[in-house]
Amino acid sequence: MSGLTCLILSSLLVAYASAQCPSPWEPNTLYPGFCYYHYVFPVSWDTANTICQIFAGGDLASIDEFEEGTVIYDYWNRTAIDQSLGYWIGLTDIHDSGLGTRQWTDWTSLQGKTNWQGGQRPTDTSEDCVYVANEGDTDEERKQWRATSCTLVLKTFICERKLVIN
Description:
By secondary structure, this protein is an alpha+beta fold. The chain has a single domain, classed as Mannose-Binding Protein A, subunit A (Mannose-Binding Protein A, Chain A, Roll), CATH 3.10.100.10. The chain has four helices and eight strands.
């Protein structure tokens, strides 16, 4: 690597490390570069998605790794008023016209790692939107996903956005 390349990379790392999420957003301690905000008032998935994209400048939280799901769950668990509801995440098949192919609201595809309750992907085509259920006896069970209606069910939700480095 050239000296100039090393200098540029070093500068970016310093800027990245010193950047912070704006208050009241919470940083992702495991995957730096992302911030989360938990909206504690229950709304439909459609409303949650709109709030995250238009008002918060992000998306409903996407979970690409089990560990990332744990960071998000722990944050929700600390800030939830009513833990019986679970919370919306950004996984949906609402854009695929009933084909059953789910993707994240940030348009990334659902990788091979999933965390469906009962280990099986739901097949009901009316259940287009996904939430973390917070049901079960163990932490692993409480972090599992369930699908339901996007408009008839109300849940709290977590927005995710990339950390902006000035």
